[in-house]
Design a protein that fits this description.
By secondary structure, the protein is an alpha+beta fold. The protein is built from 4 helices and 13 strands. It has a 6-stranded mixed beta barrel. A 4-stranded mixed beta sheet has the order 10-7-9-12, with no helix packed on it.
Amino acid sequence: MSDDINVQATSRSVLGKGASRRLRRENLVPGILYGADEDPNPINLKHNEVLKHLENDQFYSNLLMVSVDGKEAVRCVLRDVQRHPHKLQIMHMDFQRVVAGAELTLTVALNFLNEEKAYGVKTEGGMITHNESEVAIACLPRNIPDNIEVDMEDKKIGDSVHLSDLKLPEGVRLTDLVEAGDDSDRAVATVLASRKTLEEEDEEAAEAAEAAAAEGGDDAAEEGGDDEKKDD
């Protein structure tokens, strides 16, 4: 886990949709800070700072140090980000306070490694498709990983990486995986034959069929010639 990320916020006293619209016109993002058996705390964040934070993949899964009105920062995790459907605008954010020693559930990104070196890509001409970009985990706050690495180097065409194949850091478990091999053990990535590879295979098969047909025709012609000689 990397260093904590610092987030600055201010208290928000005026609530409601109208107040939130006014805040957004002032380039502020309304949010809420809750959890740890404390009262929810409505907050504001500066929109430009929020956009910079959201460019960092670790902001979505790492521990965040949220300071409200310049007071001592509290450890939190980001729980929800609401975005405008058409504009580059953040509408609302939810942060959950972290309790030391209490297990958290959150999502972390998958970091796919050695895709260009993968046997199925480099040698067999295939391509890799990602079925999942993140997974849900549970762990103590101190064990939150930046991401979970998925090494694709030895994967061939037709091979898949399932949840049960992931190498998890110590103290981290997958919340979606019930048991290896059951219906919950879904694939997160698969090496597929590319269209070019499939076309080449089709061409080779067609050429082989034509060659076999031609050879069969020659054999038939030879047999016909032998029969004529016998008749003579």
